């Protein structure tokens, strides 16, 4: 065993440094579900800047220093307050904001979001089949993004009463509003559970279809849309 360690010490050191880099500086996050349609697709792999918000002790959630603040519209990764599962959603409301939803329409600080004319699309849901989808641009709180609605899905939470976001917490929603496990179900996300900001798509493949690479998505910037 000792001889093996001596013979492979360079490789072992590389693995240790690589692990520290991924847990403290930058990481990548595969997209496993449709919750961020139409902006992120299953099979996308996104680059995550772990230094966007906090410097943490490697391999822990211990914060050493605050480096930046999440902004409305940021796509972020975080640990679910329910079960610590890693999720990727969009920041919709910041500490101090009052946010509500009425029939899928966001209202932030008393200002209803504006929406473009919807474009027709199709959403394939496992064990359900193909459903009608509507894709439109949502403008609210100084940011805008493309979102998707599924009119035929009746079980999603399309309404919630006004809620003022407390200090140190954030309200997250998926862009695929009627097919996303987000703050409407898991609650607000504390700052210490944030992991990083998703910056761009590194690579992409059609994992729900023919597994062919989607080269047009390679390197696609995300940003706060």
Features:
globular, mainly beta, Umud Fragment, subunit A, seven-stranded antiparallel β-sheet, 225 residues
Low-confidence stretches: 11-21
Protein structure class: mainly beta
The largest beta-sheet arranges its strands as 1-2-17-5-6-15-16
**Major sheet details:** 7 strands, antiparallel
So what's the overall shape?
Answer: globular
So how many helices? 3
For the record, the CATH architecture of one domain stands as Ribbon
What would your notes on this structure say?
It is a single-pass type II membrane protein. Belongs to the peptidase S26 family. This is Signal peptidase I. InterPro entries: LexA/Signal_pep-like_sf, Pept_S26A_signal_pept_1, Pept_S26A_signal_pept_1_CS, Pept_S26A_signal_pept_1_Lys-AS, Peptidase_S26. This protein has helices at about 1-5, 10-25, 185; strands at about 25-30, 45-50, 55, 65, 75-80, 85-95, 100, 105-110, 110, 115, 120-125, 130-140, 145-150, 160-165, 170-175, 190, 195-205. It is mainly beta and about 220 residues long. It has a domain at about 1-100 and about 165-215: Umud Fragment, subunit A (Ribbon). The strands form four sheets. Strands 1-2-17-5-6-15-16 form a seven-stranded antiparallel sheet. Strands 9-8-7-14 form a four-stranded antiparallel sheet, with no helix packed on it. Strands 10, 11, 12 and 13 form a four-stranded antiparallel sheet that branches. The protein is globular. The termini are far apart.
